[in-house]
Structure formats: C-alpha cells, structure tokens
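The records we work with from here on pair a chain with its fold. The integers have meaning only within a learned vocabulary of local backbone shapes. A complete example follows; check for yourself that the lines match position by position.

:::
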Amino acid sequence: MDAPTPTPIPVAPAAPPSGVLPTGAAPYGAPALPPATPYGVAPAWAPPTAAPHNVLAWVALGLGVGSLMFGLLASIAAIVCGHIARRQIRERGEQGGAAALTGLLLGYILSGLFVVGFVLYLLFILVMVGVGAGSASSGFTSL
C-alpha cells in the first residue's frame, strides 16, 4: 500500500537581522524620519557670526595697564598700539574699539603723569641744590 504523501510544513519567513526594520517602519510606533538632505544643501538658517576681535586693541589695553608697573616705555607703546588698532578696526570692521580707546587713554594719561612727576622731581632737586648753595655761602662752617 501506498502511504499518502505528507503535506509540507509551511516555513516561517526569515526574520530580518536584529536592529533592521522593514522599509518605512519606525520602532515602537514612532513616526518615520523624513529623508536625509543631500550634502550640497545648506541649512535654512544659521546664527549670525560676530566680527573678530582686533588683537592689537587688547595689546594696547594690556600695555596701558602695564604702564603702571613698567613706566613710560610701556605707556608710549600703548599709545602707538592704540592708534594702530583704532585704524585697523575702522578699516576692517573688527571689534575691540573700547579696548583700543582705553589703552590709548591710559597711555596718554600715564605718560603725562610720568612727565609731570619727572619735572617736579627735577624742580625739587634744583630747589634743594639752591638752598644748599645759599646756606654754604652764609658763613656757617661745617665740621
């Protein structure tokens, strides 16, 4: 007797590899992502960029403050750097105008104070020499 041929057992479809979802499906019911933009397309909006800072303006400010410690040479350098920085800021549209102006003002003010102090020192020396010369001719003898 012939045995009836068994009916084939249906085979389950192969599962996709783990982490791979069928096209158009999103995990856990989340909405599908829109298609990615191509590389050549620029974003619709970008934040405005600020103008760069002028380095020489900050150098002038540092020299102006440093002239309190380093004297007339630093204040003269602050004046020169401040003028150059202000011209560069006007021409290039950079930031740092306040720093350049502050360094420039500190340079001028402290240079003036150093010159006035030096003149007062010389006057003091001249007065003391005059007083000493006047007392020596008055007839007092020193031991």
About this structure: The helical segments are 55-70, 72-92, 97-136. Residues 79 and 108 are 7 Å apart (CA to CA). The chain has three helices and no strands. Residues 55-129 form one domain.
